[in-house]
Amino acid sequence: MSDLKILIVDDSLFFREALARGLASNISGTIEVERAENPFEARDKILSFDPDVMILDVEMPKMNGIEFLRRLIVQYALPTVVLSSRPAYKNLALEAGAFSFIEKPSMTLGSGDFMKKVAEEVCQAKAHGDKLIAESQEVASTSPEPPRPSAQQTAVAASPPPKPQPAQSFTVAPPSSAQPGAKAGSAFKCYGSHEQVSQHLSRVVSNMNAMKAIAQQMKSDKPEPQSVPLSSLKTPVPPRKVELIAIGASTGGTEALSKILRDLKPPLPPIVIVQHIPPMFSKMFSDRLNNECVINVKEAEDGDRLEPNSAYVAPGNRQMRVKNVGGLMSLDVNPGPKYGGHCPAVNVLFKSVAENVGDRAMGVILTGMGEDGAEYMVKMREAGCVTLGQDEASSVVYGMPRVAFEKGAVMQQVPLNGMAMLITAVANYK
User: Fold this and answer.
1) What is the pLDDT of residue 223?
2) What is the DSSP code string of 162-187?
């Protein structure tokens, strides 16, 4: 039997897996980990898995993590550790009922320190949850009527739960004094049977779906973006044979890159990649891609000579540039100041490509928040490079590709499922 059951809720497959491995290395005893991609999947995992602690991301598709915490989890006293790269979310997370908040790795936070911190907070959250459950069970055994949540339980929320909606109130199921077969320390044990909890969560999610639909109708009558049909794609003609492919990505990029690189087949020129990623994850990310792909993938190192059929991923907290000496291309990978708030920065890579490779290169910009890459993708196109951008419908966040397109940097917008096909066509154009 597991000593600790943890549910990780994060939209990044890579981050979920890396975190699961890190927790296993830093927590003594037997742990069991389940994963969910979004809050709706998390709801089902909570009911079936009955976790002791939840680790929750904030920025996810379908529903914001803090909104999920505020509307669902606080009512069931499930200790939750919130992770985010944005410190501004800390107060909101704690007010919504998080046990603690941890900032995702930054330039100064090493992988060991981060994983140890998360492991410590998870263990403390488990101990806190056990204490609350023991107190509620003690009250239940001495009271003739089902007790309300104790003051300590209410304190977990840090602020009152949202007011009930007139049509569908958010009621908490009364505790059950006897639940045969229930796991000791279960976060749901004092709030009713599994069936009661399931029915309640289903009602709340239905309510949120209805509110989301209404909000969408009120927000605008702009139609949902439609993916660019593959039949409409035309292969841009490169002015010269493509000798380098440069790719930039951010939010949602790990999954997008995984799909594209898995679909690419030799022969291909060298590929250089900047993905906004913390230092601790860039090596694991590139190793995972290397195992998945036909082409070679590695974390870039200073002085790497660029080889065909190989991809090089910029390390976290390092700026990566392409050098060209006598027609031989290599990498300059070194610590450097942030550019536009990023290290590595897509703009830094694209600038070096525009200046040192010119019209023998191709540029690709994928899903991501903000505008990194747009400035120097313009320069790449002016230098004669073929430039492609991911379309809105297939982007997790249509930020970086949108800005690049609006600046005139993108020659053609491409859906994710057609990107590898078009990259291959341009790279092998004769």
Assistant:
1) 63
2) PPPPSSS--PPPPP-S--TTPPTT-T
